[in-house]
Each structure stands twice: as C-alpha cells, then as structure tokens.
Amino acid sequence: MPVGSGAVNQPAALPREQLDRVENSPHDVDAFVRLFNEVPVRDLVRNLTVAVETFESADRCFPLTLNDRSEAPNCYICCPSSAYIDYAIDETRNFVSSPLLQKAIRMLIGLCAPLVRASGLDHQVQVNNWLYSTNPVPLLDRKTVAAIRDDLTARFPDRAIVIRSLNEIADPSTIAALKAERFRLLAARQIYIFTERGSAMTNDMKRDRKRLRMTPFETVGDADFSEADYARCEALYRMLYLDKYTPLNPHYTARYISEMHRRGILQLAGLRRPGGDLVAVTALSKNGRTLTQPIVGYDTGLPVSEGLYRMMMALAQDHAMAHGLFFNMSAGAAAFKRLRGAVATVEYNAVYAGHLPRRQRVAVRIMEFVLARIGIPLLRRFEL
C-alpha cells in the first residue's frame, strides 16, 4: 500500500456510492459543535482537552478541533504523541507471550518518541474530528483539499493540519487528492470494513443471530433508554474500553452519551435484564451511508458465554445490512471481525506541515517513512 507524497491523478469517474457515502450534514455538524461549546469538554470526555468549532470550506462543512502542544498528554483522538507513543506502548500487551518481541517493539517506540515530539503534531488543527476513534471522511477532490489547506494555513500558521480515519477501501480518491496537495500519510492502525453488498452471512454471524433470538435479556431500542440508563451506559463502556482495554481510550461520560443521544447524533441499542439494569450497550453513528460504532460496553462480570459483545456487534451489523450501509468496524478483535465478513485495511492520518519550520517538516517525512517501512508490516503481521 503506497505511502508518500507526490502528484497522483484522480480517477476520471467515481461510483455514485462513493460520491455520497459520507454526508456531514450541516445540521449534525452544528448540533455536535454546539454541544461541545455549551457543555465543558471534561464533563463530556473526561480525559480530553479540546476546542471545537465549525469549519466551512469549498461548500463543505466539518467539525474542527484545536489542540495546543501544552495540553499533551491528551486523549489520542486529538494528540498524536499519545497515539504513536503511549497507545503504541500499551498495545505491546498483545505480545506478552513473546517477551523478547515485546521488549524490541517497546525499544523501537522509545527510539521514535523524540521524532514524534519533534514533528510538533500535538499542536494541531484537525478537520472532520467528531471525537470518535473513527471519523469517516467526506469525499474530497484536489480542489477542495487545496482550499482546506489554504484556509487553515492562513488562519493557523503555527499548527499542523490533520485529517484522521482515511483508508484505501473507503477513501482512495481522497487519499490521492491529499497526496497531490503535499499531505503526508502516516499509518495509524489496521481496521475492518464490512459491506453488505457481496457479503454472505457467515456461520459465526448466523450463530450470533441465534444467540440474539434466544437470549434471556431484553432488547432495548433507541427510544427505550431512560435517564437512569445513561449512567449505566457509561459504566458498561468503562468496564470494557477503559478497565479491560486501556484508560487511554476516550472516557465518554453519562452526560456525553445522554446529550449525543438526545440531540440525535448517536443512536443507542442494548440489552437489559427483564425489568432491570442494562447489561450491554452500543452507540451507532450514521453519517450519510456510512456506519460506525463509537461505543460498545457490557458487564464484564458476566460469563463470556453470555455472548454480550457478540450480540452488540450483531445488532450493529444488522443495522448496516438493513439500511445498506458501509460499516467501518474500526480496530481490534481482528479474528472476530474477519469471521463475520469484515475485510482488513490500514488506516492513515493525513498531515500537512508544509508551512511549518523545516525541523517539523523533516520529522513528519521521517515518520511517514518509518511507519510505511516498519509500522505497516507490524500492523498487518500482528493485526493491530
């Protein structure tokens, strides 16, 4: 998979489904930005400091985030040093069965840490940042990319310009346009894409649906969440993503979940004990014809045999199939997602640093090279 700069011609024609796959409706952007300006950020995402505003360029509308280098370490969704150093070190827990490999990778990350800091990427303006781990990007042609770059370098001459969540399955022409306008593509992680079109129901998917039909827990629809449920949603998310995985993940609060749900930005679904508490929850984000799943949580104290995670993923896949949506299943649980029809691809962060001091430009170019030559093979080999 090519990573690098240089002019790349865009395809003469694009399938219609690619043209309108991500919408970024001005209504949704406005609702999201107003939320993060009406409520203190730490009341919404406890481990995040950020400024959020609306950005319009070339008739496109985006949420825009601003982060200062003084705020590092910050949550990785706004802070590349946290993503490429802290989160990367935490991911070495996957190699606990191979202590020598774990030690070697940690040493490599340690050697790269000064390079990441020298890039100055923590002092950034990020386009299309919905503050999720995965932010599907609207189709951008070269003219639009140039307008975005010129607008933002004029407004923020000391900040790197960042666009996350790009991949070759969803965004080939956008990646080509970004590279043609001298954005650098920094590999980030391996993600999994599920498309209903051409995807047969696998045996594992069939078993998941059978489990959903037979579970003693009650299915909770989007309209069925009460005020008391939001605190339980936060607790279930925390059990999985912060306690079981890593506290470096975004710490979404009950206030965040309730506000995002009430304002129609996220849809919720879950399972509860008959007449009792929720035992599992998921939040779905539909942007145009693309679906993501920013929140999954379940009661990790219950037996794995209950299949709570499997049922939450099944609910999301069923939603995607019922509405003909392109489902970006994000990273993690590689084998699980492959067995349910998802395809792996590398995700990139696009960075423009051409207006920054030479030291920062050189650091970004070296990061791009190292991630392409070492990072991507590691991502693919170990399915990170």
Number of strands: 11
Which class best fits the helix and strand makeup?
alpha+beta
Nearest-angstrom radius of gyration? 20 Å
Biggest sheet features: 11 strands, mixed
Describe the protein in words.
The protein is α+β, with helices and mostly antiparallel strands. The chain folds into 2 domains: 213 residues, no CATH class; 141 residues, 3-Layer(aba) Sandwich (Aminopeptidase), CATH 3.40.630. Strands 1-2-3-4-11-5-10-9-8-7-6 form an 11-stranded mixed β-sheet, sandwiched between helices. Helix 9 crosses helix 10. The longest helix has 25 residues. It is globular. The N terminus is likely disordered.
Q: Which tags fit this structure?
A:
384 residues; alpha+beta; Aminopeptidase; 2 domains; 11-stranded mixed β-sheet; 13 helices; 42% helix; globular; transferase activity
Which SSEs are present, and which pair or pack?
Elements lengths: L15 H4 L6 H13 L2 H4 L6 E7 L2 E8 L12 H12 L7 H21 L4 E4 L14 H14 L4 E8 L4 H9 L3 E12 L7 H12 L3 E3 L6 H19 L8 H9 L4 E6 L5 E10 L2 E9 L9 H16 L2 E3 L5 H5 L4 E10 L5 H25 L2
Parallel strand pairs: 3-4, 9-10
Antiparallel strand pairs: 1-2, 2-3, 4-11, 5-10, 5-11, 6-7, 7-8, 8-9
Protein name: GNAT family N-acetyltransferase
Keywords: Transferase
GO molecular function: transferase activity
